[in-house]
Amino acid sequence: MKVKSKGARLALLAALFIASTAQAADALTIDVHRDANCGCCKKWISHLEANGFQVIDHVEHDMTSVKQRLGVAPRLASCHTAVINGKFVEGHVPAVQVIELSKRNDLVGIAVPGMPAGSPGMEAGGTLHAYQVTGLTKAGTDQVIADYPTK
After folding, report:
1. Are the C-beta atoms of residues 78 and 115 closer than 8 Å to each other?
2. Residue 129 needs a FRET pair 20 to 30 A away by CA distance; which of 15, 25, 60, 149 works?
């Protein structure tokens, strides 16, 4: 596209700047707390980034106290814990459910307990285990948010 006038060029540049700024503002920011030696945590971070998240990576020395501080019940525990908009995300939760969590006022967090093969960050040579994404309601009850059966 050839732009002839200086004013038109400036308008085009301004439009491009506004579009790129708006796109950056749409990215969800998530804080991920993980152990320094965990490879699957890094893979999960890559999964989030590939799905448009801006990840702030926190390497921790005591993940148990992080989980306790954020209200992650032991039955929901996995290897890493994230926080988005004040809500916890525990374990290998797919990005689509993290996005859903940000729209749900009834939940304080979501989790994929354990480390199921085939969940984001736990891809292992085609092995797939069934798993669920569990939500923790404000009342303290568990709620199945999504089912991922074996294929």
Report:
1. yes
2. 60
How much is the pTM? 0.81
SS3 category, 109 = strand
Query: CB atoms < 10 A from the CB of 91, how many?
Result: 29
pLDDT digits (tens, 9 = 90+) for 121-149: 999 888 899 999 999 999 999 999 999 99
CA distances (Å), origin 131, targets 57, 88, 93, 135, 149: 25, 18, 10, 13, 6
Greatest Cα-to-Cα distance within the chain, rounded to the nearest angstrom: 64
Domain interval for residue 116:
28-148
Using DSSP, state whether 122 is helix, strand or coil: coil
Q: Are 71 and 87 in contact (CB under 8 A)?
A: no
Number of other residues whose CB lies within 10 A of the CB of residue 54: 11
**Per the domain annotation, does 4 fall within a domain?**
no
